[in-house]
Structures are given as C-alpha cells and as structure tokens.
Specification:
The chain is α/β, with parallel strands linked by helices and 478 residues long. The protein is 28% helix and 23% strand. The chain has three domains: 3-114, 3-Layer(aba) Sandwich (Cobalt-precorrin-4 Transmethylase, domain 1), CATH 3.40.1010.10; 118-240, 2-Layer Sandwich (Methyltransferase, Cobalt-precorrin-4 Transmethylase, Domain 2); 312-476, no CATH class. The protein binds S-adenosyl-L-homocysteine.
Length: 478
C-alpha cells in the first residue's frame, strides 16, 4: 500500500517548516510540487525522485501524486503555507472523489499542516489577527467575481480584519482596486493596511500603509494584503487589533471598569441579557450541553452597585443575604480552610449522597436512588444493580455496588430524592456540576458520619426551593 503525504511547508524557509512536514518529506521516495516550492526545500529532497510542475498544471500534479502513491510509493505533494488553505489539498480530494477512493483504500492519506500566509505575514507586522478575521482570495480564475465581491462586502460590513491572498498578478490588477472601493464604504481611509511580500523568504518586503494609500505600492502574486478592522491601530510601527480588554478593564490599574464584572459577559447596549427572553420566545437553552462557565460570585460583586439595577438580581441578593445570615454560604474569593471534622451523633433521618458515573447516588437507611440522567449508557447489571422503580430522572435501585459518599443530606425516600433532583441537578448537562459541588463543599461543614468525613449539606435540604432557585439562577448561573 502506498502513502500520499500532502504537506504544507509554511512561508518558505527552514525555520518555519514543522518537524512533521520535514519528516514526511524526508521519509518519502517521490516529491511533487510547483517548481518554486521545491526550490524552497531543495536541500531536503536531494536524491529523491522529483516531479516539478508549472503553476497551471495543478490537476496533473495531483493526479500524478495519487497515481504514484497507488503504485505503492511514499509520495509527498508539497504546497506553500498550509495545503488546506488555497492549497493542493482541495484538488487532491476532488481527484480522489473522481477515482471513487474510500478511507482505508490505497493510498493512505496524510494531511500535514503548515503555517499559512495570514499567520506568518501577521507575525511580521505585529498582531493584526487578534480578533475576528477572515481570508479572501482575490483570484477569480476559478471563482466568479460576483461571489468574491459579495464576500468582501460581507467581511467589510462585519468589521472583520481581512487577509487577501492572491491579491494581484500580471494579468489581474483590477480586483484589488475594486476590493478597496468596497471596503472604503465601511472603513475610514486611515485604517491600517500591511503589504507583506515573500514573507520569511529572501526577497521579503513589508510596507505598512493605510486604506487611502496602499494601492500606491507594488502588490503582486507573492503579496498578502492585511486590511485592519475599525479597531486596528498602529503602534511603534506594529499593526495591532485589540482583543477588547480595554472595554472591561482600566489597563493602567488592571481594575474592572464600573458596571462590568470580570467573568461575566461584557455589559453594553444590545448585549444578550438585554435581549428577548429565549423562554418567552419558546426557545430553551436547556439540553444544549453548554459547559458551565467559571463565573463566580465574589464579595466585590455583592457590593457592586451596578449589580442592584435589576429587580431579579435584587431579589437574588436578598436571598444571598438570607443564606449568608444563616451562616451557610460563604462567597469567598479564596477557598475556605477545611473545617475540623465534627462528629455527628444525632442520626435521625440522615442520608448520604455520592457520585456514580456522573449522576447522584442517594442512600438512606432503607433505600437507594440514582438521581439524574447518564450522559453515556451505563450497564447497571454489570455493577450488580437493578432498577426497582423509575420516575423520570429518579430511579430507585437495589443491589450491592458501594459508592463513596460525599454529602450528608436530611430526609429519606422518594420525596427527598426528588428534592435533591430539583436542588442539585444541572439541567444543561444532566448532572451535578463541579462548580455546584465546589459551592457546596466550600459552604458546608465537614462532619464525621458512619466513619467517613462528609460535607454536611442539610442546610440545603431545608432551604426553600424558590430561594435556592434564585441564588442558582442569578448568582451561580447554573
Ligand atoms: N497555501 C498557501 C496559500 C496559497 S495561495 C498558504 O496557506 O499560505 C498564494 C497566496 O498566498 C499568494 O498570492 C500570497 O497572497 C500568499 N502567500 C503565500 N506565501 C506567502 C509569503 N511567503 N509571503 C506573503 N504571502 C504569501
């Protein structure tokens, strides 16, 4: 069986080719590529069979590579930058499809990434691609111009930084002029523009200019044109697009600006919070498997005045005070020191909670329950368990499997189980989240029960459901 490596060699010097690309080239018997690219890697292909092709012989190049590989050879087809970005990879797939090749068929296919021009050229001029950006090829040899035009228009409207590949050639001069006209409708003339020619190659040439003036410089087949967004600025000759930290932070002090909160969405006009309630619209975020964020309540948040603006948060704040007043929830930035384990003597109606394959294991003196839905199928039989009764996500089980308990709970039977379900289950991923567990651990006393230290969460068992809902929804966001 032969092997076809399709390799991106990066911008074109030895330091910016990946070790994986180099080893693929070195291990191959036959190397195929456009003459210029083969010249760039000439010292690595000494002694190998080589097929050099011209620029317009791409289909030939791809077909020859596949044919030789099918004959049992290890063949490497090289592309500049990344083979999957305006490179040979697309054509290779077109040809494989034509030949009705299937995965597992001869030849084996290896796709090896390389540093694409946007990345290499970006690094030469600063940090233009820090925020949302896109690449557009101005070559209309294979793509209809109206399509390209529409993309330039959309990217300009969307305020994307744009990296233009194939901006011009001997015969194609008008495209970049048209592109400028479109962008100028959306961005000011002083928007930074970088022209990088032959980046990381011998004839490297870099021009830092702007939208008004960039057409006064040479732009050709070896140039990548990076046009900034409305946010991109020049600093010390570098082109920089900010990530947005200055929207939230005072950069000299590092403090969060008034009205903003560290790990929460940026407060601004039109932010998601101010938009229509999805539930009212009949859309449910539940079951979308959104991972819980790291948002966390700190004492500073509680004191934050901006926080009191909405009535729902106000009621949550009251709830919080209630909980804190009862001495249970301690919203601290640093972890609370582990408390000394206290011995629980009164054992009336006490039950324990543990975790079993991501769902809650609830055990009182007489009965055992599994609470929540498994994310992946779990064979209870294999664990020596069987279901006795099932009501929604609460299953009464029988069997011998023993689970390490984590929490101490007050109450027993089905009623307690459904109370636990309501209080602890994260609807979005069907199991108790790490974050909620941490809250419980940090705000509960460690006690000794049946020989093991457990976190005493009886306060939660006694907490009115709506108070807890309010705290969860508004404060813990889970
Ligand atoms: N697969 C390549 C792109 C091939 S299209 C990649 O991922 O980079 C050819 C275009 O890529 C050129 O017209 C130019 O716009 C850009 N390009 C490739 N190498 C470059 C380099 N070293 N310096 C500047 N631009 C380059």
């Amino acid at each position: 069986m032969g092997t076809l490596n399709v390799v991106g060699i990066g911008p074109g010097n030895d330091l910016h080719i990946t070790p994986a690309a180099l080893s693929a080239i070195k291990s191959s018997e036959h190397v195929i590529g456009y003459t210029t690219y083969l010249r760039l890697i000439k010292k690595h292909i000494v002694g190998k069979e080589i097929t050099r092709t011209g620029m317009s012989e791409e289909i030939d190049r791809a077909m020859t590579a596949i044919k030789l590989a099918k004959e049992g050879k290890t063949v490497t087809l090289v592309s500049s930058g990344d083979a999957g970005v305006y490179g040979m990879m697309g054509l290779v797939f077109d040809c494989l499809k034509e030949l009705k090749w299937k995965r597992g068929d001869n030849p084996t296919l290896n796709i090896i990434p390389g540093i694409s021009a946007a990345n290499s050229c970006g690094s030469l001029v600063g940090a233009p691609l820090i925020h949302d950006s896109c690449t557009i090829s101005l070559s209309d040899l294979l793509t209809p111009w109206p399509v390209i035009e529409k993309r330039i228009e959309s990217a300009s409207k969307g305020d994307f930084v744009i990296s233009f590949y194939n901006p011009a050639s001997g015969r194609r001069q008008r495209q970049i002029v048209e592109a400028k006209k479109i962008i100028m409708e959306y961005r000011p003339g002083n928007t930074p523009v970088a022209l990088v020619k032959s980046g990381y190659r011998k004839r490297q040439d870099i021009v830092m200019t702007d939208l008004d003036n960039f057409l006064d410089y040479e732009i050709g087949m070896l140039t990548t044109v990076i046009v900034g967004s409305s946010q991109t600025y020049m600093y010390e000759g570098y082109m920089v697009t900010p990530r947005g930290h200055e929207n939230k932070y005072d950069l000299s002090s590092g403090d969060v600006k008034t009205g903003q909160r560290k790990t929460f969405s940026l407060k601004c006009e039109g932010d998601l919070k101010s938009q229509v309630d999805l539930k009212e619209e009949g859309l449910e975020l539940a079951k979308t498997y959104v991972t819980p964020t790291d948002s966390w309540v700190t004492p500073k948040d509680v004191n934050d005045k901006a926080f009191l603006n909405e009535s729902s948060e106000e009621s949550a704040l009251e709830a919080l005070e209630m909980l804190k007043g009862s001495g249970h929830l301690q919203f601290e930035e640093t972890k609370v020191e582990k408390k000394k384990v206290r011995n629980i003597l009164e054992t009336n109606d006490l039950s324990t909670l543990g975790l079993f394959h991501g769902v809650l294991w609830f055990e009182d003196k007489e009965e055992t329950f599994l609470i929540g839905d498994f994310k992946e199928p779990v064979s209870l039989e294999e664990h020596g368990l069987s279901i006795v009764e099932e009501a929604g996500s609460v299953k009464k089980i029988e069997g011998t499997s023993k689970v390490e308990p984590l929490f101490l709970w007050e109450g027993k039977g089905v009623e307690a189980a459904s109370d636990i379900y309501k209080k602890l289950i994260i609807y979005r991923n069907d199991s108790v989240s790490m974050r909620l567990q941490d809250v419980l651990k940090e705000s509960s006393e460690r006690v000794d029960f049946n020989g093991g230290p457990l976190f005493d969460v009886r306060w939660l068992a006694n907490m009115p459901q709506d108070v807890w809902d309010c705290v969860r929804e508004t404060k813990l966001k889970c």
